[in-house]
Write a structure and sequence with these properties.
The complex is a heterodimer of chains A (212) and B (222). With 212 residues, chain A is α+β, with helices and mostly antiparallel strands. Chain A contains seven helices and six strands; from the N terminus they run ααααααβββαβββ. In chain A, strands 1, 2, 3, 4, 5 and 6 form a six-stranded antiparallel β-sheet that branches. In chain A, helix 2 packs across helix 4. Chain A starts with 27 loop residues before the first helix and ends with a strand. The mean pLDDT of chain A is 95. With 222 residues, chain B is α/β, with parallel strands linked by helices. In chain B, the strands form two sheets. A two-stranded parallel ribbon of chain B has the order 1-4. In chain B, helix 3 packs across helix 4 and helix 8 crosses helix 9. Chain B is globular, with a radius of gyration of 21 Å. Chain B starts with 30 loop residues before the first helix and ends in a 21-residue tail after the last helix. The chains are: A alpha+beta (212), B alpha/beta (222). The interface between A and B is large, with 97 and 83 residues. Strand 5 of chain A pairs parallel with strand 3 of chain B, so a sheet runs across the interface.
């Protein structure tokens, strides 16, 4: 297991809940959490890998017993304090010691533009791709420290490269504030991991892979 | 249609100023509601966040961007072979040509169901989902149950959604571990030859574009 959030293939989970539920939100506070997270993301003080890591590194009991947007909220509070946008005292009291900004990080008139632009993750590659389509590769063992996007259930497994996507921002580095360190990203297909007749693919960066 | 809801959230704007004299009955609010309310007023007071920005963000994902976008993409792929090929070759550009771009859809891949293969999308590590074409993910997609079981026992999971995949049909599960986002093109139902693109789009459900459902039969659209 790499983190509290690394759930793929973990046994013991029951029926899929809320199959017919179509609403993205179930109360006003959930709406606010999504909106605050996006609005503060525009501060540029952290990136998507840091916010994923802030959610996924919560202790497992807390992660599994918290609602989805509760996890987001806790992660946002932690990032705000860690990046010194808010002091622990301010967080506790809910009152600002002083106004810090004249203009908000994201102005209402810029919302549509910023959302529709998104943040592409494709980068110039610093070196040639090590693998090609059709190559057999083996994934590295589970990493126990820091952030990673290699799911535990696919660690140490043999698969086939199906697509070479190009170099993408590397979450293991980017989540830790070490810069983007772009790495080649591949779609790797794994046959019969759990059940015969079922193949699973995942998008994996070159440092997760070794030649077979 | 799920996107037509009116947000009942008008009272918030009254409490968003710097006036701390408002006197709500906090005893009725849960711990998380209090934390969210407290953080919201703090971020506004610091000047980091504009309440109108928050309203705009919510309105975007609650009322404007949702699975009707993806349904248009699928219906076009069903009726226009050239668009279908483009979508399978370069989904990001093909989808952008219909005006759907941006956050959590920067790098799109479309995968097509066929008589031989059924595709199912999951994010076992968090809740990665193609926002520009499907909106925000539903509760079940984010649930630990789905994230754990979609890879280990997809046939059982699909049967909980009412989708029985015959034994001879292969299943391909796509775990969204990077920033590539996936859209399933479900099989076009029989008996839909005379339907227009708009009528076809009505048959394309959110779940069918994740693989956790099939397109509706004509006459079954709600």
């Amino acid at each position: 297991m790499t983190s509290s959030a690394d759930l793929g293939g973990r046994p013991g989970f029951g029926a899929i809940p809320a199959i017919d539920d179509k609403d993205p939100f179930h109360s006003d506070w959930e709406r606010k959490v999504l909106a605050m997270t996006l609005a503060m993301g525009a501060s540029g003080r952290w990136n998507i890998d840091m916010s994923r890591h802030a959610r996924e590194s919560l202790p497992q009991d807390q992660y599994l017993s918290s609602g989805y947007y509760e996890i987001w909220h806790t992660a946002l509070e932690n990032l705000l304090v860690e990046k010194q946008l808010v002091s622990p005292e301010e967080l506790t009291s809910g009152a600002a010691s002083a106004k810090a900004l004249e203009k908000p990080f994201l102005e209402p008139e810029n919302v549509a533009k910023v959302l529709s632009r998104g943040t592409p993750y494709l980068r110039e590659a610093a070196s040639k791709a090590k693998f090609d389509e059709g190559d057999i590769v083996c994934t590295v063992p589970t990493k126990h420290e820091g952030h990673t996007r290699l799911p535990g259930y696919l660690a140490g497994k043999s698969g086939t490269i199906e697509t070479v996507y190009g170099a993408h921002v590397f979450p293991d580095a980017s989540s830790a504030g070490h810069g983007e360190e772009p790495q080649w990203l591949y779609r790797v297909v794994f046959a019969d991991v759990f059940e015969p007749g079922v193949s699973i693919s995942a998008d994996l960066w070159e440092p997760y892979l070794e030649g077979a | 249609m799920p996107m037509a809801r009116i947000r009942p959230d008008k009272r918030q704007s009254k409490t968003m100023g710097h006036d701390h004299s408002h006197d709500h009955d906090h005893s009725e609010l849960s711990d998380i509601e209090l934390r969210v309310r407290s953080l919201e007023s703090l971020l506004i007071e610091k000047g980091y966040v504009d309440p109108e920005t928050l309203n705009e963000l919510v309105d975007t994902y609650e009322n404007r961007i949702g699975p009707r976008n993806g349904a248009k993409v699928v219906a076009k792929a069903w009726t226009d072979p050239e668009f279908r090929n483009w979508l399978l070759e370069d989904a990001t550009t093909a989808i952008a040509s219909l005006g759907f771009t941006g956050r959590q859809g920067e790098h799109m891949v479309a995968v097509e169901n066929s008589p031989d293969t059924h595709n199912l999308i999951v994010c076992t590590l968090c809740s990665c989902y193609p926002w520009p074409v499907l909106g925000l993910p539903p509760v079940w997609y984010k649930s630990p149950q789905y994230r754990a079981r979609a890879v280990s026992e997809p046939r059982k999971v699909l049967s909980e959604f009412g989708v029985e995949v015959p034994g001879h049909k292969k299943i391909r599960v796509w775990d969204s571990t990077a920033e590539i986002r996936y859209l399933v093109i479900p099989e076009r139902p029989e008996g839909t030859d005379g339907l227009s693109e708009d009528e076809l789009a009505e048959l394309v459900t959110r779940n069918s574009m994740i693989g956790a459902g099939l397109a509706l039969e004509p006459g079954a659209a709600t």
